[in-house]
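pinging the channel bc i need a second pair of eyes. not urgent but kinda urgent?? the chain im working w is below, pasted from the shared doc
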Amino acid sequence: MITLQVRKERVGPVLGRHPWVFSGALENVPDEIPAGTPIKLIDPNGNFLAQGYFNSYSQIAVRVWSYNENEKIDEIFFAKRILRAQAIRKKYVASAKTDSYRLINAENDFLPGLIVDKYADYLVIQCHTSGIEAWKKEIVAALAKTLKPKGIYEKSDSSSRKVEKLDEQTGLLFGEVPDLITIKENGFKFLVDVARGQKTGFFLDQRDKRQALIKYSKGKTALNCFSYTGGFSVYAL
């Protein structure tokens, strides 16, 4: 782990738990730090501020993933983050009628740059930053052990990877993933093509909007001009 000092006038955002530390906020950054290297952030007096990973020498230098000085970054670290995120989803989203949702939402789940979507018994991951890409092996291992999915598929093909100077990465990482996955959302069933579909295969973030459409479409004729998987059409019907 490398220790980097945050400038006195830039300590505030870190204390306020902003997940990004810009290169200009750091007193000095040594040359040739590999992406993904664990970073310990301190203030000018040597007090601990946060932990994160070094991402690049561009604008966002460090992405924060912990405020615990003693937390060790390894497979167990990722397993704890995954289980924490899973517990939140089980409490607020998962049910007998909904088995698919965003499991890991990057900074919101203290894993900056990582997206994990759950589709029934399968997982689809996206690595958006070079720093999180460096930990992919540990992340996949932690996902496999903690959640025991039937398969994990990578869909790291977003345009943000070009900014990070990363090539697209798609393909099977663990187990088996069928061409079409049957999922449940609010009691409705859909077929998801994670390999050839847009994003990770289905716009899971539109779940509540699709549910809200029901009260507006009752007794009416609906035209879905941008149907993709037909999600809104199914809810309207």
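so Residues 13 and 237 are 48 Å apart (CA to CA). and Helices lie at 11-15, 75-92, 130-133, 136-147, 160-163, 207-217, 231-236. — does that match what u expected or am i reading it wrong
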